[in-house]
Amino acid sequence: xxxxxxxxxxxxxxxxxxxxxxxxxxxxxxxxxxxxxxxxxxxxxxxxxxxxxxxxxxxxxxxxxxxxxxxxxxxxxxxxxxxxxxxxxxxxxxxxxxxxxxxxxxxxxxxxxxxxxxxxxxxxxxxxxxxxxxxxxxxxxxxxxxxxxxxxxxxxxxxxxxxxxxxxxxxxxxxxxxx
Length: 179
Fold this sequence. Notes:
By secondary structure, the protein is mostly helical. The chain has a single domain (2-153), classed as NAD(P)-binding Rossmann-like Domain (Rossmann fold, 3-Layer(aba) Sandwich), CATH 3.40.50. It is 44% helix and 10% strand. It contains 10 helices and 4 strands, in the order E-H-H-E-H-H-E-H-E-H-H-H-H-H. The chain has helices at 10-13, 18-24, 41-54, 56-59, 74-85, 96-103, 105-115, 125-130, 137-142, 151-156; strands at 2-6, 26-29, 62-66, 90-93. The strands form 2 sheets. It has a two-stranded parallel sheet. Strands 2-4 form a two-stranded parallel ribbon. The longest helix has 14 residues, at 41-54. It starts with a strand and ends in a 23-residue tail after the last helix. The model has no long low-confidence stretch (mean pLDDT 91).
């Protein structure tokens, strides 16, 4: 068994802020100055492929923490987004209570977890397995991925957009019955 544990994924970071970014030049989040090391899903695939290719003789019974190369605040994310889009995008702090009202208690609890700094850490595991630095957020936004899209293309597509302001998709999760 090999376990890959990825930090908060880059492609989920601003997905629910598409309209604000495109139309009004800002995004809101309760993460503020807390620095998080966001990870590329492509990097997750690269390290998984490496583990499969090299097999259990090298990777059996290993646990790998896959992170980005450095933690970033929301202001730094806004700077990368501005540079990639070639237009000013600003970060607006969002109150955690408003975030919970917008997206529900479960997602708010996860963001509270992010605000506590758990995802600040940077792990050497990606480098140790693959032999190169993990993908920085700016590179994710601007470089073409394996399916011909950049991170900007992915951000502004409707694919994978599961969170909608005013809709708590997890509110009934505790009521799910096993068959």
